[in-house]
Amino acid sequence: MSASNIESKRPKKSVAPSAKRPKRNEKGWQAEKSAMTRSAILEATIQCLLELGYANTTTALIANNAGLSRGAMMHHFPSRMSVMRSVIDYLHGRRLQEYRDLMADIDDPKQSLSQDAFTKSVESAWRYVNLPSFFAYQELLTASRTDFELLKVIEPVEKDFEKQFLDTAKAVFPHWKNVARLEGAHDMVQFLMKGMALSHMTVRKTERTKHVKAYLTTILTDIYQEAKLTE
Amino acid sequence: MSASNIESKRPKKSVAPSAKRPKRNEKGWQAEKSAMTRSAILEATIQCLLELGYANTTTALIANNAGLSRGAMMHHFPSRMSVMRSVIDYLHGRRLQEYRDLMADIDDPKQSLSQDAFTKSVESAWRYVNLPSFFAYQELLTASRTDFELLKVIEPVEKDFEKQFLDTAKAVFPHWKNVARLEGAHDMVQFLMKGMALSHMTVRKTERTKHVKAYLTTILTDIYQEAKLTE
DNA sequence: GACAATAAACAAGCATGATGGTTTTATATG
DNA sequence: CATATAAAACCATCATGCTTGTTTATTGTC
């Protein structure tokens, strides 16, 4: 047996989740620490999903990445799938939050929607599909195509997500009254962004991206103008 | 973990690739049989990719699906990666061919491009991203994000594919002179179709799909009209 | 003492690549 | 033509390493 493993087998304590650590003599210290550990495991899992993909995200790697032993991890999550379940829920909320943050303050409550508002929303949508959480979730979604267990978990979440996602878009554009047109525009944006994000553009990526985004902005403006006529 | 396959362990001879089988006393029978076996292995691999995903596509399952022993398979392809290499090349050609077939006879050589031509091309693009070969390739592409070995194989192929893909689109629309606009339109179509194909639309899938396709058609018409002005 | 958190060791299963051996086909030679 | 020999195709089995989930042991907290 040679020391072939470059990485230390010992869990590294480095990954302390970015939060204050509780003092040991406080009330509820144990509970809080437990929550922090859980959170660290979820973050570590997401990291693994991003760097290694779903298939290679093993329980050992998650534990190591979170800075604890595999046994400790299995104490918090009794199986690999149970970790994934929690990660899916975690990403569900996080992605919605990130989307809302990105889309905040776009529609001017005082006036009708301007070209500028659409430019901003397209840019936000593009940023959104480039977030780590998007790729991590996408990894789970892709795996669920051929993993029935995972599909059972992610399907209802996905359904709820799609609804809340659309509702958020509606909330962002309160001036846009024609709901059917708004939904159509929402689909256009999301499908385009997703298609771009998941395409391996081998040449002139930035220009093409820019061009598509610019054109999409004009499309949105057109749809909105037309929608206003049929209010 | 994966769906427990209750299939027989014994290789099934059923998967004879859809071609005439050569007579055994002919000249070059062995070579031809070898080619058929290789082909059967590639088809079996694609089948596995579709049904089980890249991670669960094991050499044992491929061999079983192709109707021969693992040993025999390892004779033709010395490693799992070598199978994937060949599958990637195989899909490369096949997908281009399928796209060309779908896009054949769209541009009327006698007249300018009609609305009908764009409707047809959008429909073809949609069919294209719903072919098995698209999903099989997508499985490989997704895996390559976190599998460096695979990435090294698929990257140059992807690059060549993108080029030939675009060239095909150009060849399909010889009347479309403004190349920059054509490329932009091509991107719009491909990103949209890809985004739709890879989205798990949980509600009103057919209507939304139909609506996006219809709107995309009008977009293409607009882009083309504008492109004609700047010829 | 009861319980939570952690660590370490264990057993079973699976996927991979490699080995050794058998059958079938091709080819060279008298 | 007959046949010896090389080459290709094929099959069964094995050793290794990895992953999972379980179990056993240790430490610290209420």
Number of helices of chain A: 9
CATH architecture of the largest domain in chain A, by name, is Orthogonal Bundle
The overall pLDDT average of chain A reads 86
The value of Rg of chain A in angstroms is 22 Å
Largest interface: A-B, 41 and 42 residues
The top-level CATH class of the largest domain in chain A is Mainly Alpha
Query: What is the CATH topology assignment of the largest domain in chain A?
Result: Tetracycline Repressor, domain 2
Structural class of chain A: mainly alpha
- Relative helix content of chain A: 55-70%
Q: Using DSSP, what is the number of strands of chain A? A: 0
N- to C-terminal separation of chain A? 75 Å
Name the features.
homodimer, 231 residues, mainly alpha, Arc Repressor Mutant, subunit A, Tetracycline Repressor, domain 2, 69% helix, 0% strand, elongated, DNA-binding
Structure, explained:
The structure is a homodimer of 231-residue chains. The first copy, chain A, is an all-alpha fold. Chain A has helices at 29-52, 59-66, 70-76, 80-103, 115-128, 132-144, 148-172, 179-197, 205-229. In chain A, helix 4 runs parallel beside helix 7 and helix 6 (132-144) crosses helix 7 (148-172). In chain A, 32% of the residues are buried. Chain A is elongated, with a radius of gyration of 22 Å. The longest helix of chain A is centred in the C-terminal third of the chain and has 25 residues, at 148-172. Helix content of chain A is 69%, strand content 0%. The first copy, chain A, has 2 domains: 13-76, Homeodomain-like (Arc Repressor Mutant, subunit A), CATH 1.10.10.60; 94-229, Tetracycline Repressor, domain 2, CATH 1.10.357. Chain A has 9 helices and no strands. Chain B binds a DNA duplex (30 and 30 nucleotides) through residues 1, 11, 24, 29-30, 33-34, 37, 58-60, 68-76, 78-80.
